[in-house]
Amino acid sequence: MKNWSIKQRILGSFALILVLMATMAGISAWNLSRIEDGATSLRKDSTPGLYYSTMINAAWYENLLMAQQISQVDETDGERQGDITLLRRNGERLDRLQEDYDKTVFSDEDRRLFAEFKEARQKYRAIMSEVLKMDFSQRAAINRVVNEQLRPQWRQGYQLTQRMVEKNKAIADDAAGDIGGAVTSAKFAMLVSLMAALLAALICGFLLMRAINEPLQRLMAILDVMRSGDFSRRLKLDSEDEFGHLAGGFNRMTDDLTSLVGQAQRSSSQVATSMTEIAATSKQQQATAAETAATTTEIGATAREIFATSRDLVRTMNEVSVVSDQTSALAGNGQAGLTRMEDTMGSVMDAAGSVSAKLAILNEKAGNINQVVTTITKVADQTNLLSLNAAIEAEKAGEHGRGFSVVATEIRRLADQTAVATYDIEVMVKEIQSAVAAGVMGMDKFSDQVRRGMQEVQSAGGQLSQIISQVQALSPRFQLVNEGMQAQANSAEQINQALVQLSEAAQQTVESLQQSSQAIEELNVVSTELRNGVSRFKVSA
């Protein structure tokens, strides 16, 4: 087991304990099987067989008593018939007990005894049948048959039942003994297995503890030596388990650490010298960076002045360009307004011509209305004459023409109203014709004035177009100048930003160099501490 690993030792210990526990479980299972077999025998064979055999023995004894009662005691036929009935019931009970007992027979000897009993009972029943057929007045003959044939046959059956009872009792005693022996054996086996498992656990635990504790103690001793600065000691373990591999890795780590400490001791002096040189160089770079930062600051001030001047010029050119654009936009809007005015005046002239035409048509329609009015006037006059004639005729008719006279009066009144209305319409039509004629003359004058205004608008539009062309020609030039000034301002801004960044970079360089100087001083201190620290370690040559 010396070359076993810790894992193999642990697994082997558990395997041994598991084997012991499995053995204990197997022995316990075997003993439990014996106990179960004994209990099954008691439940199915011994106990039921003992019970039924005892019941058969008692019933068999009762059967003889009933036979003696019938043959020797009963005096009347009524008593005899009652006992015969009880005898038959006893026989039926014996039949049932035989059937139940037959189910509990398992051994050959028990089966043989039961078969002999059934045969003896058959003979007994045959003799009993003969006794019951005999004349009960001949008691001497009946007693002779009972004493010489029936009782010996009963005694043979009784002896067989006794042997059956004894046999079942012996089987029950054997089963109980087997169960007791199995229980005792199971207790002993479990005790022995438990003691063996405990002993194996103690032995395996001791071996595992020794296999783990001894290498750990040696490792802790080496660590205590190394903690004091002595790296010349090594861990030696004569085993191939995990601790052996751990010792090999620990020794390799110690070798590497020894080499590292040696290199640190050799390099500490070189680091101190290099730190001094780096510190001097850093101070020179810091002075140069400070001068660069001052120069950059002066250039930045000049660039800011250039940027401010360029920005003012750009603002002025932007204002001039805006004014030029506004002038061009206003001129364009004026030209567009004149164009719209010209279109509007043309539309007005067209509308005036259309109105004149409509007025002429209206004058013509008014003339037509005048003719219609004249016709209506003539119709009203004729209606008036007709109503007058109708009134005359109604007057001639007397009483029968009174209603017609009223109608004629109403017609004449309507004719008068029509004449008046027609006259009013004629007057209004004449007024309309006069107004239409005046409107036609006014529209003609308006058309002439609009035509002259349109010519003046066209002249002003041409002049305004020339102004717009000249203003639009100036706008691109302003744009070019503005773009140039904007480019100059952007360049000045970029220069200013670059100088600001350069100034910030120079300032950061100065700060970095200051931090580097501080770090170099700290590193120099650390180097000294490192040299002092590694000097206490003892390494092998």
Secondary-structure map with pairings?
Elements lengths: L5 H68 L3 H26 L5 H26 L5 H89 L14 H156 L4 H133 L7
Helix pairs in contact: 1-2, 1-4, 3-4, 5-6
Protein described:
With 541 residues, this protein is mostly helical. The protein folds into two domains: 6-203, Aspartate receptor, ligand-binding domain (Four Helix Bundle (Hemerythrin (Met), subunit A)), CATH 1.20.120.30; 255-534, Helix Hairpins. It has helices spanning 6-73, 77-102, 108-133, 139-227, 242-397, 402-534. Helix 1 packs antiparallel against helix 2, helix 1 packs antiparallel against helix 4 and helix 5 (242-397) runs antiparallel to helix 6 (402-534). The radius of gyration is 76 Å and the shape is flat. The two termini are 38 Å apart.
Helix content: over 70%
Write out the CATH superfamily name of the largest domain. Answer: Methyl-accepting chemotaxis protein
Distance between the termini: 38 Å
Question: Roughly how many Å is the radius of gyration?
Answer: 76 Å
Structural class by secondary-structure content = mainly alpha
Number of strands: 0
Helix-strand pattern, N to C? HHHHHH
| Count of discrete domains | 2
Task: Detail the poorly predicted runs.
Answer: none
Number of helices: 6
CATH topology of the largest domain: Helix Hairpins
- What share of the residues does DSSP label as strand, in percent? under 5%
Q: Based on the structure given, which CATH architecture of the largest domain is correct? A: Orthogonal Bundle
- Give the overall silhouette: flat
**CATH class bucket of the largest domain:** Mainly Alpha
Taking all residues together, what is the mean pLDDT?
75
The profile of the biggest β sheet is: none
